[in-house]
Amino acid sequence: MSRRCSLYAAVLLVACTFASGQLMPVAATSPTTSTLPAATSNTAYDPHFNVGRGYWKRDYLVYVHSASPSVDLYDRNSLRLTVTAQIPGAEETSLTDAAVAKTGELIVSGSAKLKSGEYRRFVALADHNGQVSRLVDTGGYAPTRVTTCDGITAWTLGWERTPAGTELKESYAVLRQYRLSDGALLSSDLDRTSFPRWPSPALSALHQFPDLTLQCRGNVVGIYEGATDEWIEYDAAERKLTRWKLPTRNHPWVQSDAQGRILPNEGEATFITGVAMLDSGEVYASFRYHPEAKVWNETVQVGLFRLHKDGDSGTWVPVGGTQGNLWQEGGFDTLRGTDGTNLVYSRFKQPGWFFSPPPR
User: 2-356 in CATH: which number?
Assistant: First the structure.
C-alpha cells in the first residue's frame, strides 16, 4: 500500500474537520495528570482566520497569510501590525512560516519567483516595514518551518528539490541551522532516509496543519513529525538527536492503494489539533477523537494531553479538567501554542484565547 498527498483533497479533509483514518481514543488507559489550572489571563479579542491558523509563539500570535507574503502579529490586546516581506528582485513571493526574533524583527521562510523566471528558496530577516536586511538563499532546499533560539540563527525543517523521481531515496538533512548574518550553514541533521519513503517528512506543512511543528527552548529544538508520528529533539549544544515513537494518529493527507485509488475512510479517527513545548521541556498536545468517521457532532471528544517519554517511545497522558465533548460550552477546545511558560488554548463558545500555567 502506498500513500500520496492530494492538496485539493487535503483542503476537503480540513473542511470536514480531519475526517479520515484509524485510531482508538488517546491514552485511554493512561493515568490522568493534574488538572489544568485556571486561566490567569486571556486575549481581549477572539482570533479567527478564514484560511490556515495562527499560533501563539512567545509574545505574539503569529499568522502567516496563504495568499500574500504577509504576516500578522497580535499581542494580547489587538492586531499589533502586518508585515509584508519584500524580497529583492521578486515578482511573486510565498511564505511557509514565520518566527519573531528577540529584536522584534521577523524571521520568515518561503520561496520567490524572480523576474528572470528563476525561483529562490530562502530564510530572511525582515523589519516591521517588510524590508529584508538579511536573506539566506537555501538553494534547492525548501524550508517549510522556521524557528529561532537566539535571534541570530534560524532553524528550519524542509525538503530538497531533487531530480524528478529521486526525492524519496535521496540522503539529505531535513533539519538545518543557518546564521542570518552571512547565510552560513552551521548545523544539519535528521537525514531524509531515516523516514519512510512516503509520506515526506515535510508533507505535514500544507496549510499550516499542526502535524509538523518546529519549536525551540534554550539550546533544544523540538519537532512534532506527523508523517511518522514522532516527537524529536535536537540538542544543539551536544549535537545530539533523540527520537520518541508516538501512538499512530490520523493526518490530513489521502491514503491510496498501489493503483492510486483513494481508500475509504475507516470507522474512527483521532487527529492532533495543537502542539506546544514549554521552556521547562514539557510537551503538550490537543486531540479530537471521532468515534465514527465523518462525524462532526457532540459525540466527538476533545482534550489536552501531556507527553510522557519512556525510553524511545512516548504516550499521551490526559490532563484533568480538559476532557469533554465537542461544543460543550466553556469546555476545552484546542491548544493554540505557548508563551514559553503558559499554555495558550481556546474554549468552546467563549471568546478569546486563554493562558494557564501547566499542571503540577
Answer: 2.120.10.30
Q: How far apart are CA 1 and CA 127, in angstroms?
A: 47
Torsion of CA 315, 318, 319, 325, to 10 degrees: 140
Grid cell locating 322: 480538559
The Cα–Cα gap between 46 and 52 comes to 16
pTM of the entire structure? 0.87
Closest by Cα among 296, 167, 154, 313 to 230: 313
| Count of Cβ atoms closer than 10 Å to residue 164 Cβ | 6
Q: Locate 133 and state its grid cell.
A: 536586511
Rounded distance between C-alpha atoms, residue 224 and residue 345, angstroms: 18
C-alpha cell at 347: 474554549
Cell of 223: 519537532
Residue keyed to cell 533539519 = 175
| pLDDT the model gives residue 62 | 97
Dihedral sign from CA coordinates of 184, 120, 211, 250: negative
For the chain, 360 residues long, the average pLDDT of each consecutive 10-residue run is 34 33 43 86 94 93 92 96 93 94 92 90 94 93 94 93 61 94 95 80 66 93 92 96 93 64 72 95 94 74 96 95 93 97 97 95
Contacts of residue 259, defined as CB under 8 A and 6 or more positions apart, other chains included, come to none
